[in-house]
User: Which sequence fits this backbone?
């Protein structure tokens, strides 16, 4: 039995989570496993009920389970709150820190049925299949920050970028391991021509390469990488980078596929993995059965793969998504002329039915 803490959150969060749970039920039937799910409050809806976006009970539930499945948090209703009470700053960042998930994994795959949905030419993105491995708990975002008053009346700001050998090594090992299981190519992205932190990054990653003989390692400067990603994205297999570069590049990579509603993520490295779609709470479409549940369903597939070691079941879910798209079913965000429109509930149901009928 696997214990899953489920955090629906705000906006479309509860809708897409319901879709993923429907698919997990189908996996239970097919694979003969048991998932014990426990729901907990997070985000704006938690603030409304408990006065905090990350209640202690939620923290405990996340620390004492086998995996956490999160919908999304936030919305205009809570934007005016002080930073520490806002859904993202007050709940998501502390949760990632508590779970010590130092690596964020974002697979970016263009489903062949959706090649026309990208803003890039079909010949550039067709067959695209890459993974960004982003360091998640170090670097500029977590370093000391301060402001100083200057004698001329202006201000000076100082932000600190720190990385230790150990922090670089552990996330690099994860990326090497991932490349080993995929096409065997690892691109480590840095700014070693300017930054000392990047020079250490490059040294540590290079030193590890000998332990992974099947993996071809290349180093690329981040500015060149941003350019290569729109010029010839299929050259990439696994991209490894530090926190801020990864934040920017992973969003850029996600856009190659044309739809934010399709892309999952996993945050790994601690005792408990955290799985969530890359999109937010989409308040503009919440409550209308319009949200695409596929990003959350594919996040659940990542949970099966990385937290439960259920590779076959994960592949079954991914194939079910492919099959439903091949049959022409589309939620509104990926709708194309001549296709069949499905709401959130129907889309999840179609995927679940395929899982139930598929091979396990
Ligand atoms: P968003 O990702 O919520 O929405 C951006 C656009 O994409 C919207 O037009 C939305 O309708 C659409 N969209 C997003 N997910 C979709 C889905 N599954 N199906 C169909 N369409 C989808 O980003 P935003 O509008 O910038 O932010 C809305 C709220 O979400 C804000 O409060 C923001 O802080 C929060 N947010 C939360 C997370 C998170 O929980 N991890 C991430 C990003 C933003």
Assistant:
């Amino acid at each position: 039995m696997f214990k899953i803490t489920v955090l629906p959150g705000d906006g479309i969060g509860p809708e897409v989570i319901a879709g993923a749970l429907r698919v997990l039920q189908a996996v239970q039937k097919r694979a003969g496993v048991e998932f014990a799910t426990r729901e907990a409050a997070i985000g704006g809806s938690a603030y409304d009920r408990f006065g905090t976006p990350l209640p202690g009970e939620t923290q405990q539930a996340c620390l004492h389970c086998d995996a956490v499945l999160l919908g999304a948090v936030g919305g205009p209703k809570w934007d005016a709150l002080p930073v520490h009470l806002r859904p993202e700053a007050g709940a998501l960042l502390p949760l990632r820190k508590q779970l010590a998930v130092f690596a964020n994994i974002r697979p970016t795959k263009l489903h062949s049925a959706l090649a026309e949905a990208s803003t890039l030419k079909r010949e550039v993105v067709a067959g695209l299949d890459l993974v960004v491995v982003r360091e998640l708990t170090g670097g500029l975002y977590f370093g000391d920050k301060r402001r100083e008053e200057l004698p001329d009346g202006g201000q000076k700001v100082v932000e600190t970028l720190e990385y230790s050998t150990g922090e670089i090594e552990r996330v690099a090992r994860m990326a090497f391991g991932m490349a080993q299981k995929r096409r065997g190519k690892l691109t480590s992205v840095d700014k070693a021509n300017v930054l000392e932190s990047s020079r250490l990054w490059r040294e540590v990653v290079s030193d590890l390469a000998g332990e992974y003989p099947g993996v071809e390692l290349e180093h690329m400067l981040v500015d060149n990488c941003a350019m290569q990603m729109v010029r010839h994205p299929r050259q990439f297999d696994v991209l490894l980078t530090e926190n801020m570069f990864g934040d920017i590049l992973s969003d850029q990579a996600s856009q190659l596929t044309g739809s934010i509603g399709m892309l999952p993520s996993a945050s790994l490295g601690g005792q408990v993995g955290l799985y969530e779609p890359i999109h937010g709470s989409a308040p503009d479409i919440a409550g209308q059965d319009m949200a695409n549940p596929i990003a959350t369903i594919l996040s659940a597939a990542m949970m099966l793969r990385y937290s439960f070691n259920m590779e076959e079941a994960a592949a079954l879910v991914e194939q079910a998504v492919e099959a439903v798209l091949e049959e022409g079913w589309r939620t509104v965000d990926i709708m194309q002329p001549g296709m069949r429109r499905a709401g959130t509930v129907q889309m999840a149901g179609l995927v679940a039915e395929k899982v139930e009928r598929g091979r396990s």
About this structure: Residues 102 and 136 are 5 Å apart (CA to CA). The first strand starts at residue 2 and ends at 9.
